[in-house]
Amino acid sequence: MNKLVKIFMFLLLSSCSAIKKEVIDCPKVTSFKEAAEVVVKSEKNIPVYIGIRGVQTYCTNDNNDVDMELSINIRAIRKDTSIEDYVPVNISVVSLDASKNEYERDDFSYSQFMLKSSRIVDRSTQFNLSVPKGGEVLLGIK
């Protein structure tokens, strides 16, 4: 019986290592200046600066593609902090193949809450994207 348990544990542990994905270098991630920083109107019609303030990536090998996990930090800054307000944020993440053709796109929209007396608010949003090997990723907000 003891041998049977050992064999079962060996098979279980050795098969788990086959499931583990290979961590690889991530493709290039860029954003045009016009798409990385914008001024938008809040729900109460107050101008608010929105900008990309950091990107973290984690990539694994997935046959012909790269499986990319992105964490994008968006910062909202406003001058008028006398009221609570919501700011619309639209994020686009697009993977391109080596010929610069769109391969996959993920768009996400939300309202960033600005608490009374808060001048700066940061929010991190996660994405998962397939990128063809030799491709790149573009980020944008509006």
Describe the fold and architecture.
This protein is of the alpha+beta class. The protein has one domain (22-141): Immunoglobulin-like (Sandwich). The protein has helices spanning 2-19, 33-36; strands at residues 23-24, 28-30, 37-41, 47-62, 65-77, 85-96, 102-114, 120-132, 136-141. The strands form 2 sheets. Strands 1, 3, 4, 5 and 8 form a 5-stranded antiparallel β-sheet that branches. The radius of gyration is 21 Å and the shape is elongated.
What is the compact description of this entry?
This protein has helices at residues 2-19, 33-36; strands spanning 23-24, 28-30, 37-41, 47-62, 65-77, 85-96, 102-114, 120-132, 136-141.
Fold blueprint:
Blueprint: H1 2-19, E1 23-24, E2 28-30, H2 33-36, E3 37-41, E4 47-62, E5 65-77, E6 85-96, E7 102-114, E8 120-132, E9 136-141
Parallel strand pairs: 2-9
Antiparallel strand pairs: 1-4, 3-4, 4-5, 5-8, 6-7, 6-9
